[in-house]
Write a structure and sequence with these properties.
By secondary structure, this protein is an alpha/beta fold. Among the domains are: 135 residues, Rossmann fold (3-Layer(aba) Sandwich), CATH 3.40.50; 115 residues, Rossmann fold (3-Layer(aba) Sandwich), CATH 3.40.50. 36% of the residues lie in helices and 20% in strands. It is built from twelve helices and 13 strands. β10, α9 and β11 form a beta-alpha-beta unit. α5 crosses α11.
Length: 382
């Protein structure tokens, strides 16, 4: 990432103030982007652009901002809950930066992984690894790949990961995730800020979930004012250990086999080296610092980074120089490096699980009621 790009991103997230020239450039681009976004919204609102309907229930999980708000952990959480309720869910992701993004494809039929991370994309592949008995598909054309899911697997409900702005597809429930720490950044549209669309787009949401919450209600109160009368839930990200691997292991255990209370004591007495390529590397670093005795170094990479042999050598060499005892990375990163990184030290893979704590039952009941209603209204005959 070059210096200008880093500066622009820091301005977008509010981490630093823009200089006059950069500020002017970003403001011009943001204004032009805003015109295009508002025009598109008007065309959908007035029926010029048409939305299509799938013959099954549809849930969208999305957000108003770029960067990580926890859509993938939430998608996994919701798919597992729906299965527990007795529904037959499927999951569809765009497959961002995967080779199958444009043509579409089946990542998993619920039993077997059919596409690797380079073809499926890192997040869909990770979901396929985690979700047992739940098909995972990818494709930029959500209606087309949704129909493929219906034809192949007969789901009664499909969860679309990152589809809030995909208005070409009708949905029964729009779940909007909002980061508790940053909300909507500096409130500017891309690239002056982190908004994909104006905050007024919240009016399309049916349910709002604050992610990465702490004990403060500041963000909850602010969001309540912006989305009056809409249900809002606070969620929390809980780290768990996916496992300890040697770099040649490729498979994760299924969600039912994971234990969020697994003992981290060995890390508290260890020196670790961290590498990650996610939207919020600094958040992951903070998580690891809370688990490990000492973080002796880190290599942060861009979100959806495609690892190379040069990267593997750099990671291992830097970890050796720092006398690290373990490498630590994310689930999303390990699915891309598994079987490829030759490391003399084991790799600890830390994942994130969603929890609603005392609101768990209330959230589940809300979702079940909505999905029940959408499935009945479709009268879908399997």
């Amino acid at each position: 990432m070059n210096r200008m790009t880093k500066n622009a991103q820091a301005v977008m997230t509010g981490e630093k103030t823009a200089g006059p020239l950069l500020k002017l450039l970003l403001m011009i681009l943001s204004t032009l982007y805003g015109i295009a976004v508002r025009l598109r919204a008007i065309l959908f609102d007035h029926g010029v652009f048409q939305s299509r309907t799938l013959p099954c229930g549809v849930i969208s999980i999305g957000n108003l901002t770029v960067g990580g708000t926890g859509k993938t952990p939430m998608t996994i959480y919701l798919a597992e809950r729906l299965k527990e309720f007795g529904f037959k869910p499927a999951v569809i992701s765009r497959g961002y930066k995967g080779q199958a993004e444009n043509k579409g494809g089946i990542v998993s039929d619920g039993h077997n992984i059919l596409l690797g991370p380079d073809i499926a994309g890192d997040e869909p592949f990770m979901m396929a690894q985690r979700l047992k008995d739940i098909p995972v598909l990818v494709g930029a054309d959500r209606f087309q790949i949704g129909m493929k899911a219906v034809e192949k697997f007969c789901p009664d409900v499909i969860i679309f990961d990152d589809a809030f702005q995909h208005r070409r597809l009708n949905r029964d429930l729009d779940i909007v995730l909002v980061d508790d720490k940053s909300l909507f950044g500096n409130r500017y549209l891309l690239p002056r800020g982190i908004l994909r669309e104006p905050v007024s787009g919240l009016s399309r949401g049916d349910l709002f979930v604050l992610t990465r919450c702490d004990n403060s209600n500041r963000s909850f109160d602010s969001l309540s004012e912006m989305a009056p009368g809409k249900p809002i839930f606070k969620s929390f990200h809980e780290p768990y250990m996916c496992g300890i691997f040697n770099g040649t292991d490729c498979d994760f255990p299924g969600s039912s086999e994971l234990n969020s209370s697994q003992d981290y004591e060995f890390l508290k007495m260890s020196k670790v080296f961290v590498f990650s390529g996610i939207a919020k590397n600094e958040e992951f670093l903070r998580t690891v610092k809370a688990l490990a005795g000492a973080v002796v170094g880190m290599i942060p990479l861009d979100d959806h980074h495609k690892y190379t042999e040069t990267d593997y050598r750099l990671i291992v060499n830097q970890a050796r120089k720092c006398s690290a005892e373990f490498l630590v990375t994310t689930e999303k990163d390990y699915v891309k490096v598994a079987g490829k990184i030759q490391s003399p030290m084991d790799i600890v893979v830390v994942g994130i699980r969603v929890s609603f704590k005392h609101d768990e039952m209330k959230f589940s009941e809300f979702i079940k009621e909505k999905v029940d209603a959408s499935v009945k209204s479709r009268c879908f005959v399997k």
